[in-house]
Input
Amino acid sequence: MNALTKGLMMKDKAARKIKINILRFDPNIPNDRPRIDMFELEEAPGMTLFIALNDIREHHDASLKFDFVCRAGICGSCSMLINGRPGLACRTLTSTMEPEIMLAPLPLFELIGDLSVYTGNWMRGLNERLETWIHTQEEVDVERLEERMEPELAEEIYELDRCIECGCCVAGCGTIQMREEFVGAVGLNKIARYRLDPRDKRDDDDYYELVGDEDGVFGCMTLLGCEDVCPKELPLQSKIAYLRRKMVEVGLNKKD
Amino acid sequence: MKHDRLHKSVDAYLKLHNSSTPARLDFVQSVTGFILALFIMGHILFEATILISKDAMYAMTRFFEGYYFFGETYPGIISFLAAAIFIILIVHTLAALRKFPSNYRQYSIFRKHSAEFRHNDTTLWLWQVITGFMMFFLASVHLYMMMTNPGDIGPFASADRIVSGWMWPLYLVLLISVVLHTFIGLYRLALKWGWFEGKKPKESRKVMKKIMIAAIVFYIGIGLAALGAYIVIGIEHSDKVGARYHPTEGGQQ
Amino acid sequence: MKVTYTDVLVIGGGLAGLRTATGVKERGHDVILLTLVPPKRSHSAAAQGGMQASLGNSVMGRGDNEDVHFEDTIKGSDWGADQKVARMFVNTAPKAIRELAAWGVPWNRVKKGGRQAIINAEKVTITEEEDAHGLITARDFGGTKKWRTCYTSDGTGHSMLYAVDNKVHEQGIEVRERMEAIALIHENDRCYGAVVRNLMTGELVAYIAKATTIATGGYGRIYSVSTNAVICQGTGQAIALETGVATLGNMEAIQFHPTAIVPVGILTTEGCRGDGGVLRDVDGYRFMPDYEPEKKELASRDVVSRRMTEHMRKGKGVPSRYGDHLWLDITILGRKHIEKNLREVKEICENFLGIDPAEEWIPVRPTQHYSMGGIRTDHRGESQTLKGLYSVGEAACWDLHGFNRLGGNSVSETVVAGMLVSEYISDFCESEESAINVSTSVIEAALKCEQDKLDRLINNKDGEDTYVLRRAMEKIMMEKVGIFRNGKDLKEAVDELEQLIFRSHNIEVTRSKSLAANPALVNAYRTQMMLKVALTVAYGALLRTESRGAHSREDFPERNDKEWLNRTIMRWKDPDMTMPTVSYEDIEVEEMELPPGFRGYGKDMTIHHPKTEERQAMVDTMRLQTEEEGLDRIEVQRTLMPYSELLPEKYQGRNERLDERFDDER
Output
């Protein structure tokens, strides 16, 4: 029998009471002011913030705004500040925290209300700005055998393709707090991803046009908040460093 | 939407190409920082030769004044070195300035972020900003003095400057600032360019951070000890300010 | 009154909706895509395991082709699928995957030479051919003859969704996020768009379009435990149903996935078993070979789910405070494989169970997973009864899956259907019949009707609590319309749901009275919709007195082709009624390329259709004859059941394979 079964079969110990403090504000209500509401719940085994917040909505305050979609750590909808640190609420077990928990919406993004922020809008803007799609003139003939690719390369691309655009790296980035035009780790990782992909015909000069400035890779101050909060554990530190080396190479060889 | 697209394409048409300046600045900031770091690592060790003996420190001074190359001392070499470092420092500062909060609003946003986030590397950056800012002044004073009075280096001359010239408070703060700034900077430099990443960058980073802390402790320790030694000498020598040191028999060559 | 006009309105931003939008845009039509959440957050991202397409590159997939894929799909559907649609699908799937490869999906590739794999709990070495090196590889999935499921690690849906959404960005398609279609606008059996609610501001806007496409996914959330994302609430099916004109098909066909974790119901991919994982009971005993000696853990999903339930009923489940469960053992695959190819699974185990799946077994049990039923369409994706309304993906009953879907066929369906249906929609938009002849008074009335409903919910006094109704519905569905069904429970379920619908007319939104971003209000109107959807499921299940695919009646264990070789069609004629009207659409044996037979699981208890034998004989003779004439497999197929003229011209071509190279080999 493993640890979990023991956990599941265990007789109920006296359940812990947890206090969840939530920073609340509804921009749709005129004169609404930010405030902190406290909700007290009885902790259940295996309780995540997804379960806790839905419990609050069902039993305490039906107007509480937050976003969940997959509730499995896959879609990136539910990022928020959990005790000051950006993270995915759906896969945060309450048992891993002190009984008093503070939740706040992700900073920098447009606030919809309470814990709900509009990350999608921001990410779309970023994708359009960095043109995160395969650039090629080649027409694909879908009836023919597909273009070959080295298996290791495909895996390497997937490694960077795993980004879920949750915005945690943005919220954890000190640079972007001061300079909102900065593309952030999410943007730089995407450039690294397309740069790796032989199907994208852009070269380093093209990428330099996209991230070869202070809003791009040279704006990064290597605070590594991104690396440390990324729920997908993407290799952000090493990919940004790599991109910096490549972009400096372009920049130094460039004739203005 | 169509309008947006059109707008976008006009923007694209008007957009100036990214210039090479940001790349150069980024590169220059790192290179100058690296040179300054190497300099500081040597500098503190050299001045700490006082902990071995006055003779050792004297020999070191003579070495830098070119005695062992030319047979006599040229304090001008020190002036030249100080001027060179000063210039590198100015370049480094100018390049690094673009990363500084450009107004109080930015600074307070960052402070707040750093306080809430409680993320070590973010906090360290704030330390770098603060120490960098202090060094603007402190290092400038120090370097200016070295440029203008290059001969005033030696077991007694330095000690007099520190005690009777009332430089010790400045040097104390400068020492701590410069050591912190140097090693946090080197740590960040390694991460920034991906040095010593190895197969597991996360593990390497942990190791590097440990090295950084060890270096800070070591250098502040040795620096404080040396400063202490000069202070002791300076106090003992306070009645003979201006008198130069003469090595003991066999203390040289 | 706010009205927006466009050529094509797509409701739903998952893979199916996005691919439809790109296809329509490519043909030069304006398109607006509405979505509840940013498209990259859609439930398509949760499809971990893979996409079926008969490329036949891997040595374990060699010899695969459309014919084998077709046969697997039809058998998997328990002969409930539309065979022509299935043919269209299997012929387009390889094209879809190759298109996606060009759009940037980093499909895992064949690596030449030997590699270790686990098959039937034993280590074997698979040696890949040199000529396949670098082509898209595939893994094994349940219910398939060949290894056909192409994948990117276990983030297939994620990678596909991102690639297609990026294509949408490239094309500059207008995507309006956090918008919910709450009613369709229609007149004289013609759909003209939808009344749409902005979930951030609460504003209602009418979107008027030549063609309206519903791509809102399934309705799993009518069950209390489901692998589905929380937004898979069946509102797309509901708004179609509420027109009183459009119909829903086979709503009772609900798939239960064998391996969702206990208690939260998050999916662990079929790839776990495909890659060699096994199921164990309370004693650690691997029980599946006893029930299904041939396919074992890799029998069709419906079969495995039933066998697991049977086994637990025999007292072999592992008791827990959340009820019984079984074990999924992937420790035998080794840490390296798990950390590379089953990484999402590992993360899920760590984050939600606190266990390391390379060391410990995963607690699983069958859980609601997929909705085979949906908005009934013809092969062109258009509603059979409401012109101008299209539906694609899980939202639709196109009908590719019949009564049970094969793993890996759903993400495949989303893109294939998007490719094909976008062409039909474009054809429609280019025809004269697409003219928008709707009067402003109709639009205005539709808007007002919806506004009134919302106002009523907010202003109601002493009404019902939404959550009470919602939880009651979920419980009924879970307990009485589950894996094994029987007449008594289903009758109770139908009666109780009808009661709930009656009560739902009197819902009161409590505690929060805002008409803007207000989760309580959203929950209220969606619950009203979900109840209707739930009732169509329960009612369809009650009436269908046979067992077919995932619909399993304990009181009618045999598949009854004689009486039930048909689709259940539901319509809700009058919004004030509390029951749908039901009719049946026959599935014609005479037209089948693959007449009904034995699926090969358990004991054959089929009551055959009177025409099956005759059709089978005819198919056999034709096959023999044409093969003697020296026709190739594609020409033989053509004589049995011609379908290719149903496809848009650009997708009618053959698919090149290593074993079937085109003549002008590059």
